[in-house]
Amino acid sequence: MSLLKKTTGLSRSVCKRYTSTATAPAAAAAATSSPNTAVHGDATSSRKRESLDPRLNRDKFLVGNPHPVSNLRPIRYPIPENESEEDRHFRERRERVDAFNQHFWVNNNAMFIKAKAEYEEKIRAQNGGQPVTTEELSIFYKDFLDKAYERQMNYNRQWWIENIGLLLPSAKAALRKWTSRSSS
User: Is residue 173 pLDDT above 80, yes or no?
Assistant: First the structure.
């Protein structure tokens, strides 16, 4: 089995909680329910419906399908009813880091796809319409990475800064949760 199939299989099993894992009658019921709910269990058990709207889903992280260009899976973070200022700050900071990451990879992958298509077209024209070989593509890959080196390094630096910047808000949120549990 190819790595892609293994990864796809894993992704499907990870995301199974947000799709119907029920038998055919329950799946049909899920199809007729609102688009913001998922049905869990089999047809004979009581149907538990969960909202996929993060404002209504207060305790679960929702992970979407990969973005077609960035290949990143979007995450919707839960918003608890009693979200503290520390929790809100941490959640919003994580969302900003995710948006930064998404923006970079959409732009980078779009540039890559465009440059690769142009390169393949040029090589096909030179070779009389013959398919591009892996050796010819390896030249393109090296050239693309060499040209993108500085951009990648800037991204990596900023990504580390953003992620290290999550430590303090995370610690504050965890400390607040710990102190509120110990005091009650």
Answer: yes
Identity of the residue numbered 63: V
Rounded CA-CA distance 26/18 in Å is 14
Q: What is the rounded distance in angstroms from the CA atom of residue 63 to the CA atom of residue 93?
A: 18
In DSSP notation, 58-109 reads: -S--EE-PPPTTT-PPPEE----TT--HHHHHHHHHHHHHHHHHHHHHHHHH
| Whole-number Cα distances in Å, 5 to 12, 72, 102 | 10, 17, 24
Please, what is the end-to-end C-alpha distance for the chain in angstroms? 52
Residue 53 per-residue DSSP state:
S
Contact 151, 108 (CB under 8 A): yes
Q: Quote the pTM value.
A: 0.67
- Determine the 3-state secondary structure of 55 from DSSP: coil
- Greatest Cα pair distance, the chain, in angstroms, is 76
The whole-number pLDDT of residue 10 equals 37
The whole-angstrom separation of Cα 68 and Cα 109 is 10
**Exposure pattern of 41-62 as b/e (b: 16+ CB <10 Å)?**
eeeeeebeebebebeebeeeeb
The 10s digit of each residue's pLDDT in 102-120 is 999 999 999 999 999 999 9
